[in-house]
Amino acid sequence: MLNRLLNIAKTSILLNLTKTMSTSFSLKSTIGLCQMRSTNDKNHNRQLVQELFNRSKDKASFLFLPECCDYVGTSIDETLSLAEPLTGETVQFYKNLCKENSIWGSFGGIHEKIEDRNDGKISNTHIIINSDGEVAGIYRKLHLFDVDTPEFKFRESKVVEGGKEISLPVETDIGRIGLQICYDIRFPEPSVWLKSRGAQIILYPSAFALTTGKAHWDILNRCRAIENQCFIISAAQQGKHNEKRSSYGQAVVVSPWGDILARCTEELEVQFAEIDLNKIEKVERNMPCFSHRRPDVYSIDFKVRFQPIENFIFEKYPIDSRTIFYETEHCVAFTNIRCVVPGHVLVATKRIVPRVKEMTANENKELFETACKVSKVLDDYYGVESATITVQDGEHAGQTVKHVHCHVMPRKAGDFLNNDEIYLRLNEHDKEGTQEKRRDLQEMIDEAEIYRKLF
């Protein structure tokens, strides 16, 4: 069993690596790596960004701006007061630049105002804008820079609320990009996870402090590139922003082998570098570290930002999205058309997978995690302390819909005269003429609406 699970896990990783060589984008691209010195003058900072675009529009297909490209405040109050929502003027300005110049852009973290926050805190938000001027990716910084030493004091958490999830890599014209911000570079786990999900390029737009930059900047960027066998692009702030704050600079592009391909040294500068995705394949072939990992011993899991499913097909049966009450990256939970007991629901993989043995490691893990979470919620809702959770794996096990799914059924004392009768009823419940009547759609929608509020 252990070897079987290990093989499944390895297959999943290899599948992800195979997807990294998708040809839906150019394998070779020229990008613009930017460095600037922001102040509290937002209009001046926009002019600097405009200048960087002007220098790049005929040379690069993608431009990378640093953290705080919108502004650097002189105080907590000013930093909060200058923040804008993603629908504000600054992001619109960035959108217009990308569209007018037909260039993709990476911006941030920028200071995102959250309208419904009671404590006034903002988000440090990294956005990707495509060449049509549309937001293609969003990530909110997970790790906040809180440091208090005799030489340096900075508490990002006084202003910023940490992100709650990691975003899946963004499909772009130059490859699949993983989003991070500055201090995140000190935490290798997110980058490994992004790589396992197909990232070919990982971004760390930064405003690194002088002392830590001198000591660790190059080392950290090269480490993340080498251990993940991908490109690292780290745009940077450089220079004195105000009397309290200065940034190290030295924006870099690093190859999958750890070579520095480009570096900025001036306060306002753009350097150009070629991103050749063929180099990733070569490094992976010569040093196949990811296939040598031991997922049977260790793994990395994150709460992920996923794209909600719009048209879920349960083998061949379209499922009304209004009956779906819980969703993860790989699984959905939805109300059942015929119920053996009250609260009988289904948890299925999003991908049409006929048998358990054909599931990937991620699907396997999420299916049963989701079933457990759904069962706990239904236990509380129905006031019970038992549940039958079962999978009919294949035709001779009673499977009628050839799509892996769990039946989650809350149980209470005396719901069946013979406790195991539930399995006989389950085997017959979706056939005409049985006591489990086919429910109408509205009843299923109403039930899903109730459950949805419990998560």
UniProtKB/TrEMBL annotation:
The record's annotation in Pfam families points to: CN_hydrolase, HIT
Classify the source by domain of life: Eukaryota
Cofactor(s) of this protein: Mn(2+)
Identify the residue span(s) of motif Histidine triad motif. 403-407
Identify the residues that bind substrate.
N336, Q392, G398, Q399, T400, V401, H407
Q: What is its EC number?
A: 3.6.1.29
Asked if the record carries the keyword Hydrolase, the reply is yes
Q: Which family does it belong to?
A: In the N-terminal section; belongs to the UPF0012 family.
Instruction: Tell me what this protein is called.
Output: Nitrilase and fragile histidine triad fusion protein NitFhit
Source species: Polypedilum vanderplanki
